[in-house]
């Protein structure tokens, strides 16, 4: 399975969480129902929807919406995905929604729950009466599975439309008298879990950064994008670029990506619940707020005399991403240097920069050798202030020093790291 996911696609842990929760909801609804009778609360909720007095002219619309949950909707979505050159979306739709329709049939046979008209009196039935077994709703499962796998490929508005339509399919199945509430909830949970499983196994598309738009944005602000080249970065968090060979200054460009699942309410609640297990938060805010935060922390550090790259531009980018542009530090980070090239004078100056930052009350938050650049003149620079904060709490400053000391110990040995630190910080 090492070939999964393919290049350009990444897994998100939130999808695994959705698989587990979807399976849990399915299990709860399965154990909550009885094949021979309907609980009072479920019956009352069913009648609220089933007895809605909608005008007769709405029936064609209701019927059309319900077709989004039939098996025929799967090839339709696949064809639309192929037409728009989203080949993976076509595959995801077929795998998730196509297979879930068959799984729903198996669940029906296992649970053996009848349709509403066999369990309740005075059920309003519109259109052709549904026959066979009721739990789970195959229409709901297919519609929710399609919305789940399509979400990473859609923009915010289109994603909302997809989920509203999936919800309408679920309500419509109760409105026409074909399913009870637990039927549609169980079907939706089954589709949610199946779609999330496909995304977790095969991966969802990276929030790609269009190079053409990035070059145009830099040019619009009077910055030369010549030689714009991607460099390392967290593919799910940010994309980084450098320029070279053009008009000075050379640039370091960081685009904080708009990964919608990071902002998902469910995922944020899970991260907050288990905050004690986190080593680094995925977000400190929206992408635009994050680059603003990083730029402000860098400017505060520069005001305190710390050697940091000059901030040139902060702006929103490409419908929700955030872009930070700084002057590029020509050199390498400490992690890339060989130990015999790291002299005591460099280490002493690095600790002096840290002392200036801490005297200003700024905790870096990720003070590791990879965030300590060394320029061509052998001077250290502190970079990557996205986790920084002004913190009067001495514990945060102590964590900074301990983290840097550990990184330098691995690089040059404990004796040199400790000696240069004590000579500067005491």
Describe this protein's structure:
- The chain has 426 residues and is α+β, with helices and mostly antiparallel strands.
- Helices cover 51% and strands 11% of the residues.
- It has 15 helices and twelve strands.
- It has helices spanning 13-32, 40-50, 59-66, 73-83, 87-111, 116-119, 138-150, 156-175, 181-202, 211-220, 265-273, 287-303, 344-359, 394-412, 414-425, and strands spanning 9-10, 204-205, 229-231, 238-242, 251-256, 311-317, 321-327, 331-333, 362-363, 372-375, 380-382, 389-390.
- It has a five-stranded antiparallel beta sheet, covered by helices on one side. It has a three-stranded antiparallel beta sheet with strand order 8-10-11. A two-stranded antiparallel sheet has the order 1-2.
- The longest helix is centred in the first third of the chain and has 25 residues, at 87-111.
- It is elongated.
- It starts with 8 loop residues before the first strand and ends with a helix.
- The relative contact order is 0.09.
- Mean pLDDT is 87; it is low at 276-283.
């Amino acid at each position: 399975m090492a070939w999964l996911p393919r290049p350009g696609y990444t897994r998100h842990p939130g999808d695994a969480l959705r698989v587990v929760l979807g399976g849990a909801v399915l299990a709860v609804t399965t154990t909550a129902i009885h094949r021979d009778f309907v609980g009072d609360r479920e019956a009352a909720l069913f009648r609220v929807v089933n007895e809605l007095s909608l005008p007769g002219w709405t029936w064609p619309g209701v019927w059309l919406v319900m077709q989004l949950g039939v098996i025929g909707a799967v090839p339709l979505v696949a064809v639309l995905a192929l037409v728009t050159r989203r080949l993976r979306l076509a595959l995801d739709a077929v795998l998730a929604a196509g297979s879930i329709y068959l799984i729903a049939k198996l669940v029906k046979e296992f649970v053996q729950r009848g349709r509403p008209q066999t369990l309740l009196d005075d059920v309003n039935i519109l259109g052709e009466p549904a026959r066979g077994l009721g739990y789970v709703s195959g229409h709901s499962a297919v519609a929710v599975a399609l919305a789940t796998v399509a979400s990473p490929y859609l923009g915010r508005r289109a994603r909302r439309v997809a989920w509203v339509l999936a919800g309408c399919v679920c309500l419509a199945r109760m409105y026409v008298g074909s399913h009870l509430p637990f039927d549609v909830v169980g079907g939706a949970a089954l589709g949610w879990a199946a779609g999330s499983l496909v995304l977790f196994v095969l991966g969802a598309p990276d929030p790609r950064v269009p190079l053409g738009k990035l070059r145009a944005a830099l040019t619009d602000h009077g910055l030369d994008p010549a030689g714009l080249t991607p460099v390392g970065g967290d593919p799910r968090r940010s994309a980084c670029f450098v320029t070279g060979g053009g008009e000075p200054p050379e640039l370091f460009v960081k685009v904080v990506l708009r990964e919608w699942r990071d902002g998902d309410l469910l995922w944020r609640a899970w991260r907050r619940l288990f905050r004690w297990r986190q080593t680094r938060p995925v977000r400190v805010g929206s992408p635009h707020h994050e680059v603003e935060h990083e730029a402000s922390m860098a400017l505060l550090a520069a005001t305190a005399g710390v050697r940091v790259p000059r901030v040139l531009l902060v702006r929103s980018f490409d419908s929700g991403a955030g872009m930070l542009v700084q002057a590029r530090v020509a050199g390498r980070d400490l992690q890339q240097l060989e130990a015999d090239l790291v002299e005591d004078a460099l280490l002493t100056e690095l600790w002096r920069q840290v002392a200036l930052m801490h005297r200003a009350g700024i905790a870096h938050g990720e003070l590791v050798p990879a965030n300590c650049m060394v320029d061509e003149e052998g001077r250290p620079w502190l970079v990557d202030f996205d986790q920084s904060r002004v913190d009067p709490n001495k514990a945060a400053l102590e964590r900074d020093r301990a983290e840097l000391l550990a990184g330098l110990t691995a690089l040059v040995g404990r004796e040199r790291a400790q000696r240069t630190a004590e000579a500067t910080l005491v």
